[in-house]
Amino acid sequence: MQRTTQAAVETTGTLPLAEASQPGRLISLDVFRGLTVMAMILVNNPGDWGHIYPPLEHAEWNGCTPTDLIFPFFLFIVGVSLVYALDGIKQRGGPQGAVLGRVLRRAGVLFGLGLLLSLYPKFNFPVVRIMGVLQRIALVFLGCSFIFLKTNWRTQVGLIIGFLVGYAVLMQLVPVPGFGPANLEPATNLGAWLDRTIFTEPHLWKQSKTWDPEGLLGTLPALGTGLLGCLTAQWLRRKDQEPAAKVAWLFVAAGGLIILGLCWAPWFPINKALWSSSYVLYCGGLAMAGLAALYWICDVQGYRAWTRPALVYGVNAILVFCLSALLSRTFGLFKLALPGGKTGGLKEWLYEWGIAPFFSDPRNASLVGAVTLIVIWYFILSWMYKKGVVLKV
């Protein structure tokens, strides 16, 4: 990672408030990113995994909870951000070798950070998980950047349709070697078979070892999520439309995507682990509507007084995501005595002695534990924001 101050961030779209206010920059994008990362920390760090409110859990398989929206929202944001970073280069024309090299480098760094998170703290290479959240972000960023630089918006619409329809055909019509007819079950679908074949079981998601929710084949529809963000950004950057018209048409498009996703769901269920085609449309529509609303509130109407918490998270999103995961695992290395004669890590010790005793409902205690972590990170990120420190890959 590098340190930067008030300089523009090449490929993340993250800027301090003063620069984000400049023409062509979106306060709403950083706000949306910050809110998404805050939600990610909230659901990834409950005080007690055994006591969580249902909306803060993933759907068991088919279906979509608020928690299931977080990752596709982030990939949508990646698509929006890369357009704001790369559109000027695309419009100027000429050789693109240098910028494609930077795109490839950034994707490689993101993928490497994902592997680091998988390895830490044991660094057990024979069983390291190959795919993961940052790895999927890296692949989507790489693929969408190349597609955006080399194609126009009409081709991008065609590619989204091709990715989603093609993925549905693969998952629902192609027989699974060793299992028979196509199916959408966790361990026996085509994507799970492909991951076991390429990566082998020791390198898959440790909770299953037979399939991976960020598997290789699922990258195909995930590119569709990123491209929906690309199309949204290109629409917002148009100079021949008034802001009110931009927002109105975005809401129309978002509503259409949501309806299409719900209509497709009976045949190809909304499913985060599979990153199903209906899930891409449904979540993409909600992300589009969310950004449109924030664009109208923050960038058009100028209501920004409430945005600071989201902005301080938004400009250092990857940093806080990585460090929160690393610190959580580091705390787990310290084994301490817990109530009831049990032992646990430092995080569990702080929760059991400092938060849980003050709540009669363990779900409330668990929620407060997650919110406390968000507040702690806010003060750290707020100090960095004030100093103009933005860490980027």
TrEMBL record:
The keyword Transmembrane helix applies. The chain crosses the membrane at residues 69-86, 129-149, 156-174, 215-236, 248-267, 279-298, 310-328, 367-385. Residues 25-183 form the Heparan-alpha-glucosaminide N-acetyltransferase catalytic domain. Keywords: Membrane, Transmembrane, Transmembrane helix. Coiled coil: none annotated. PANTHER family: LD22376P. This is Heparan-alpha-glucosaminide N-acetyltransferase domain-containing protein. The lineage of its organism: Bacteria, Pseudomonadati, Bacteroidota, Cytophagia, Cytophagales.
